[in-house]
Amino acid sequence: MNRMSIFKKYFKGSRFLTLMFSMMREVTVDSTSPAMTATVKTDKTFYVPGEEVTVQVLLQDFAPDDQGYSFFNFIVQYDSQVFDNSEYLEQSVYKETGFTPGSEVSNAFQFNFLSPADGSISFGADTTMRGIDLQVEANSKHICIPAVNQTLVTFKLRVKEHTLASSSVISLANEFTRIRACEANNNFYLYSPDITALPSEPVAIAAAPSVSVFSAGA
Prior knowledge:
Layout: H1 3-11, H2 16-28, E1 36-42, E2 46-47, E3 52-60, E4 69-79, E5 83-84, E6 89-90, E7 93-94, E8 99-101, E9 111-118, E10 129-138, E11 150-159, E12 166-168, E13 171-172, E14 178-183, E15 186-191, E16 195-197, E17 203-205
Parallel strand pairs: 1-16, 2-17
Antiparallel strand pairs: 1-3, 3-11, 4-10, 4-13, 4-14, 5-11, 6-7, 8-11, 9-10, 12-17, 14-15
């Protein structure tokens, strides 16, 4: 009898493999609760071509004992065939008049809120999706972005003038999320599995109004 046959005979009917795979599962399955939830909301759910869209990134559902964060990095994605923000940008970066940091991170002495940058994330050559990069960092290791329900940022888009009637979603590209926790002056990074991205409500675009041209009878 060869060694492999002896091995099979020894472990046949035993719980060795079951126990081994059970241990592997315990190691690989992460049962840690998400650090927070994040969602992207618009001021309305129905727009007409040419109308301005106000977008908010909301953070909520933090753990009661959460010590806060020293860095946030979120990417908001939108369809560039439906929405445009060029009037709010200067060299692909939002002008100060085009966005507003939330009240928890607006203090420039405490936090460095970078102007949102458009198109900094590539979603591939065969897609019209673009990403708006949002980053805020505490200016000192002694300061943390508080773990309380908050609006992280408000910014503008506009429905393109000649957009056909459609439905589109402005949402969080959570696979690019990166945040840095702040606990007892020890910083560590958390990534997308640690943040629950709540689904964004679809935005409906109405058909452009048609203009009738007629001549009055004599």
